[in-house]
Specification:
alpha/beta, 8-stranded parallel β-barrel, 9 helices, 8 strands, binds 2-phosphoglycolic acid
Length: 234
């Protein structure tokens, strides 16, 4: 197992369609600072192919085992080499009606297996207050065990990146909400996600000061992703 901290989390979502495409993509994403989150069915072949990158999953269930058709437990994921799991992605909140209490249970179940949750939060234009409710999930959870991924809904998959200065302000806001929730200052790992590409990636890290990025669309475009990694000197 490698120990470098991740900087790039590649969320492939429901892509690609074939295993050979997944293997090809994984090989060119195979850097120590990258976490590859493929669809579940590719985990087994990818863990044999990748040498440096870390493996993650896009979701899990909070129960350990039993009659839960279609679900996958944290322990199963651990068995396939997953060190990270995305929880609370806005697509899961929107299309699968995941609520704060489900997300909290998932985070707890992952921590029990010593898997790092990548906890996604994000507001829409109409409801910027929602960050507070979402972050409350972390009330009793040690922040050093979690990656918080801030993804404004309107920037996800739209190709319209969020203004870097605004994103930085939201990072500051998130930190101040966390201080209120936790009652003390605790160091938080905060990533940015939403239409990150090879051109804007350095802005979110160097200018806005995010600890890393969560990438969807650009992570499944070979040339674009290679360019992004190169720009990050990975
Ligand atoms: P995007 O997706 O990079 O395509 O905006 C990011 C995400 O959904 O995590």
């Amino acid at each position: 197992m490698n120990t470098e901290k991740p900087i790039v989390i590649a969320n492939w979502k429901m892509n690609p369609q074939k295993e050979e495409e997944a293997v090809k993509l994984a090989k060119l994403s195979d850097k120590r600072e990258v976490v590859i989150c493929p669809p579940f069915i590719f985990l087994n072949s990818l863990r044999k192919e990748i040498k440096k990158a870390k493996l993650g999953a896009q979701n899990c269930f909070f129960e350990k085992q039993g009659a839960f058709t279609g679900e996958i437990s944290p322990k199963m994921l651990k068995g396939y080499g997953c060190e990270y799991v995305i929880v609370g992605h806005s697509e899961r909140r929107e299309y699968f009606f995941e609520k704060e209490e489900d997300i909290k249970r998932k985070i707890e179940a992952l921590l029990e297996e010593k898997i790092t949750p990548i906890f996604c939060i994000g507001e829409d234009e109409k409801n910027s207050d929602s960050l507070k409710d979402q972050l409350k999930v972390l009330e009793d959870i040690s922040l050093k065990k979690v990656i918080i991924a801030y993804e404004p809904k309107f920037a996800i998959g739209t190709g319209i990146p969020y203004n870097v200065e605004e994103a930085e302000k939201k990072k500051v806001l998130i930190k101040s909400i966390l201080v209120k929730i936790k009652g003390k200052e605790e160091e938080a790992i905060i990533f940015y996600g939403g239409s990150v590409d090879s051109k804007n990636v350095l802005d979110y890290i160097k200018k806005a000061g995010f600890d890393g990025i969560l990438v969807g669309t650009a992570s499944i475009k070979e040339k674009e992703f290679e360019k992004m990694l190169k720009n990050l000197s990975l």
